Amino acid sequence: MSEKNPMNMPETLTDAPAREMNMIEAINDALDIMMERDPDIVILGEDVGYFGGVFRATAGLQKKFGRNRVFDSPINECGIIGAAVGMAAYGLRPVPEIQFADYIYPSLDQLISEAARMRYRSAGQFTAPITVRSPFGGGIFGGQTHSQSPEALFTHVAGIKTVIPATPYDAKGLLIAAIEDNDPVIVFEPKRIYNGPFDGYYDKPSRTWKGHPGGLVPEGYYRTPLGKARIVREGSALTVLAYGTMIHVAEAVLAEKGVDAEIIDLRTLVPLDIETVEKSVEKTGKCLVIHEATRTSGFGAELVTLVQERCFYHLEAPVERVTGFDTPYPHSLEWAYFPGPVRIGEAVDRLLKD
Amino acid sequence: MAENTARKGGNLPPLELYVPEPRYRPGDLVDYSHLPVPPAGQLSRPDENCPASDTWPMTTDMIRVLDEEDQAVGPWNPGLDPETLRRMLRNMALTRAFDDRMYRGQRQGKTSFYMKCTGEEAISVAHAQALAQDDMVFPTYRQQGVLISRGYPLVEMVNQIYSNRGDALKGRQLPIMYSSRDYGFFTISGNLATQFPQAVGWAMASAIKGDTRIASAFVGEGSSAEGDFHAAMTFAAVYNAPVVLNVVNNQWAISSFSGFAGAERTTFAARAVGYGIAGLRVDGNDALAVYAASQWAVDRARANQGPTLIEHFTYRAEGHSTSDDPSAYRSAQEREEWPLGDPIMRLKKHLIALGEWSEEQQDAMDRELVEHVKAATKEAEKNGVLGHGLHHPFHTMFEDVFEELPWHLEEQAAQAIRERQIKWPEWKEEGDV
């Protein structure tokens, strides 16, 4: 971690006053700031209006900006995204919320065949500058319909950007950058770390963001650029590629094992910051890829392939991949599914065994 | 299990699955006497600001204006001046002439695919006539009449159909999937009904911004079965969106008759009732009735009275597309027996009955339109036809996926261009090094 600039903040903002926020507060702050700056931003989704969303991400926004700009929607994700595509074609910049990532599937045709293809098929006449926010991931006893990590479905689609923050600081900066982006962006918010940096030890007391450098969020407007990874921790023994909740789990496990790992928070999956990945793997010669999503055809498969294609002659061990299992997310055995400290620890041991 | 063959439920009748079947298959004699065709002029016309429920009796009836004597009759007669009627007739005839030429162009190998709207020209043309020029239309692939009515250059249409280097869409879309923001014509999707909720969203945005423009969306009766249709109807009703939602019921979705979208149970216009919005059912082959119903819905939307669902009752006179052979699944007699006639002939006869047109003028116009279309195709052919190399440069394939090209697309673009240089070493393109 760089001493001077712990969160890779833009230099101009190092003097900005900051306050401690959890991830929900940071997201709410980003939405508030952007709605103030741009009258074309509207928010729609289930329960986002008067109530402020089931996770409170839009709390207070309807009161401040009015029902014309922040409103509840019918329980119809196809309609939410379809209407957002039409609004964007008109010239607005909608920020729809899909209440849980598990509910996003009814909107897939509108996202994949419509939003993602609008610029291409109309040769730029129509665009879809939509930012879809959706809480994702498990670890909250949500069962199979409130725990999934469907990011690989979207990284597979030409024309969509996929963004996943791991800290309140990045949740705000990335969301602002996503809203300003002229292409459709899906921001998956790791809901397990809304309130604190979960380290994978579910049987130990949970922490809040208080005192974590990523929980210190500057006031006002700033952006965390899309397509740029963050080096969470510099190191030389191996490279960890991860995002979202798994950043914090990896940090805890590697610290506990005393391994001098270089941990990279990808932040944006598409477009991927391949330069940072290559540079790190070339330095360490070992690579561990971690995600919570199911294993087969997960985004880890893409990462492993890229590392193999581009860094093969620097590799000193086979690339390791730690993921959730290829099952639906179970309820009672949630922690048996979750790629926790034991699974990660084993993979680290395999990588470092000689 | 073998012993236990007795059905559970005792004396209850066995359940039976009902699978709809159209009345007529190839070779069958067609008799449409079962199909109610109410006389023109008999339906009352409620005020545009009426409660939605006042329109509901009309969702199972049919608005018709042109009668058997080619006169415009009844309260729905829009009273259009002869100049407007002649313009509509011309746009309908031009649409048909264009379709005929492009169909032949496909058969001659100039493009991969084409779709005609024969028999449905009144719907697009008269509806476009009722809209303001800057209202946004979310079309299906059979609304070429909207572009033609709005004066979109034919040569641009042909360039798109040929996917040539003049194609404004850079050869990326299937022929006839036009897009023109400047002409208020939303980019056509090949995935059916997706444009329906989008139109509602566009209309909601217009209302959010306090604009005066409305949206109008089209869907076929077949794809009214899609979830997107339900999403659009729900959103339109919930937000009272300034949108006209059109269902073109042309009886056939490729080989599936309208029964597979529920037509045996009720009309498509009657879907409006369940959502609590205004609904109209109109003779889609009667240009005046289409205009009148469209104008009613457009005025209603523009007056903040919310959405209207219009069912345009018509018949798809040709195949679904150039890839389709309707003689394989329906009786050829259907087209001849269709009780609502040919929309172009009906409007022509009306103008003649008014003393504002003649057969000679019609013949002269048809000849002129054929030449007009021919000239546009000749002009477009200078930009190439599909498969003859005169397409956009290779690099454009990778552009517009995102606003800016990310590294992985730059790498893939370099690969595509390298492949081209290996295969055709002599070929140089703009930007080659």
> What is the helix/strand order of chain A?
EHEHEHEHHEHEHEEEEHEEHEHEHH
Q: So, the CATH homologous superfamily of the largest domain in chain A?
A: Thiamin diphosphate (ThDP)-binding fold, Pyr/PP domains
The major sheet of chain A is characterized as:
5 strands, mixed
Distance between the termini of chain A: 27 Å
Q: In terms of per-residue confidence, which ranges of chain B show pLDDT below 50 for 5 or more consecutive residues?
A: none
Account of the protein in words:
With 354 residues, chain A is of the alpha/beta class. Chain A has two domains: 18-201 and 205-216, Thiamin diphosphate (ThDP)-binding fold, Pyr/PP domains (Rossmann fold, 3-Layer(aba) Sandwich); 227-351, Rossmann fold, CATH 3.40.50.920. Helices cover 32% and strands 16% of the residues of chain A. In chain A, strands 9-11-10-13-14 form a five-stranded mixed beta sheet, with helices on both faces. In chain A, strand 13, helix 10 (299-311) and strand 14 form a beta-alpha-beta unit. In chain A, helix 1 packs parallel to helix 7 (168-180) and helix 8 (245-257) packs across helix 12. The two termini of chain A are 27 Å apart. In chain A, 56% of the residues are buried. Chain B is an alpha/beta fold and 433 residues long. Chain B has two domains: 52-321 and 329-381, Thiamin diphosphate (ThDP)-binding fold, Pyr/PP domains (Rossmann fold); 394-423, no CATH class. In chain B, helix 5 runs parallel beside helix 6 (227-238). At the A-B interface, helix 3, helix 4 and helix 5 of A face helix 5 and helix 6 of B.
